[in-house]
Amino acid sequence: MKNNYYKKIWATANKHIENGNMLLSKRPDIYLSDLWPTYYSKAKGCAVWDLKGKKFFDLSMMGVGTNVLGYSNSEINKEVKKAVDESNMSTLNSFHEVELAKKLKKIHPWADSVKFARTGGEANAIAVRIARAASNTDKIAICGYHGWHDWYLALNNKNKKEFSTHHIKGIPNKNGVPSVLSKFIFAFNYNDIDHLKYLIKEKKIKIVKMEVERNIKPKNNFLNKVRSLCSKHKVILIFDECTTGFRETLGGLHKKYKVSPDICIFGKALGNGYPITAIIGKKKIMKYAKNTFISSTFWTDRIGSVAALKTINIIEKEKTYKKILLTSSEIKKNWINIAKKNDLEIEIFGIDSILKFKFKSKDNNLYKGIITYLMLKKGFLANTTIYVSIAHTKSILNKYFRELDNIFSILKKIEKKIIPKNKFKIKLPVSDFKRFN
Ligand SMILES: Cc1ncc(COP(=O)(O)O)c(C=O)c1O
C-alpha cells in the first residue's frame, strides 16, 4: 500500500512539474523506482521523515553533499533565523558578504578576491566568464562535472570519438544547447597529463577547469603536474570544489594536496544546505569580473552568507573534517569486513568523505537495488554511496553495519543461486554518472 503511495506522489509531481523535480540526484529511479520515498516532511541530523512521518536514517547522499554538519543544524539555524527577522533582503547590501569574503581569503592565502553566487552551476559559469575575459580566449579543457550550463554541456554536442557519452544514460543532454559552443570545450581524463598537454599545445587552450579529485585518486603527482603545466603555458587553472570543499579540510581539498589553483569554486557544504556558492581567486584574474557582465539579484540575499559564516565557524572550531575522516575510515573498515565475512568481492572508491563501493560482479546493479530495497524496510536511505556527515553517529552506523551484514549474506545466497535473482520484485536503479574522474 505504502509502495503505491510513493509511486503515486511521484506521479503527481510529474503531472505538475516537468521531470518531477529539479535535480538529477533526487530522482527516485536512481535509487529504486516506485519504492523510494522521494519527498520529506522534516529532517534533522541524519534522520529524514517521509510525508507520512516514517523515519529513515540517511546513509546516502545527505542532501546531495550539502549537509556535512547534519540537517537543520541548530547553531546555523539560529543565525539564519536572526537574519530572517532582521530581513534577508534590502535595497542595501549585507556586510556578512564582506566578512565571508575575508574569511575565505584567510583560509586560502593564495586567493585575494571573491565573488558569490547561489548554485554550483552558476558559480562555474561565473568562473568561466572571468577566465575567458582575463585570457581573452574561449576554449576550455575540463575534467569533471561542472553543472547544467551551456558552456559545459556543449561538450556533448559533438559526437567525437573522445568523450561523447558523458552523463547519465537515457537523458538527452544536448537538446537546447547551441552546438556551435562545442568547439570551445575539450575533455581530458583524470590522471592523463599527456592528453592535457596535447590539448594545451595543439588546441591553444588557456583555461583548465577540473575537480581536484572525485572517484579516482591522483597518481604520479598528477595535480602538481597540472599546476606546473598551467603555470608554464600561462593557463588559468580553475579547481571546481563545489562538492569536495569543506568536507576533508577547512576549505578546499586542494589544501590536502598542497596545490593551489588560480580560481577555486565552493558550493554545497559551504552553507550546510543553505544556498551559497563562492568563487575565490587571484586578483590579477578576478579583476576581469569588472570588465564583463556578471550579476543577479538573489546573490545578495543575506541568508547564504550568514549560514556560510556559521558553517565555517563550526567546521573550524570542531575540526569536523577530522571527525568526518575518522567516520569514513570506520565505514571503509566495516565495508571490507562485511564483504570478507560474506565472501563477496567489492571495490571501494571515491574521495575519503564520499565513499562508494561496487561489487565485482555483473550483478552489481541488481545487488545495489536489493541493498536499497532491504535497507528501506529497515529504516535507512542507502545504496552504495555515503556522503559522510558528522551526524552519522556510532550507534546509527552500528545499526547500519548490522543490516548491511544481513543483506550481504542474502546477496551471497543469490550469488550461489540458493535464492533466485528475481526474488525481490524491484526495478533496477538507473545507472550513475559517467565521469572523466
Ligand atoms: C563538482 C561540481 N560542480 C558543480 C556542480 C553543480 O552544482 P549545482 O548543482 O549546485 O548547480 C556539482 C553538483 O553536483 C558538482 O559536483
CATH third-level topology of the largest domain = Aspartate Aminotransferase, domain 2
Domain count: the total is: 2
Q: What CATH architecture of the largest domain do you see?
A: 3-Layer(aba) Sandwich
* Quaternary assembly: single chain
Bound molecules: pyridoxal-5'-phosphate
Find the count of extended strands (DSSP E, 2+ residues).
14
Task: Label this structure with key terms.
7-stranded mixed sheet, Aspartate Aminotransferase, domain 2, 39% helix, alpha/beta, 2 domains, binds pyridoxal-5'-phosphate, Aspartate Aminotransferase, domain 1, single chain, 15 helices, 4-stranded mixed sheet, 437 residues
Structure description:
With 437 residues, the protein is an alpha/beta fold. It has two domains: 168 residues, Aspartate Aminotransferase, domain 1, CATH 3.90.1150; 230 residues, Aspartate Aminotransferase, domain 2 (3-Layer(aba) Sandwich), CATH 3.40.640.10. 39% of the residues lie in helices and 14% in strands. The protein is built from 15 helices and 14 strands. The strands form three sheets. Strands 4-10-9-8-7-5-6 form a seven-stranded mixed sheet, with helices on both faces. It has a four-stranded mixed sheet with strand order 1-2-3-13. Strands 11-12-14 form a three-stranded antiparallel sheet. Helix 4 packs antiparallel against helix 12, helix 8 packs parallel to helix 9 and helix 14 packs across helix 15. The longest helix is centred in the C-terminal third of the chain and has 22 residues. The protein starts with a helix and ends in a 22-residue tail after the last helix. The model has no long low-confidence stretch (mean pLDDT 94). The site of pyridoxal-5'-phosphate has 13 residues, from helix 6.
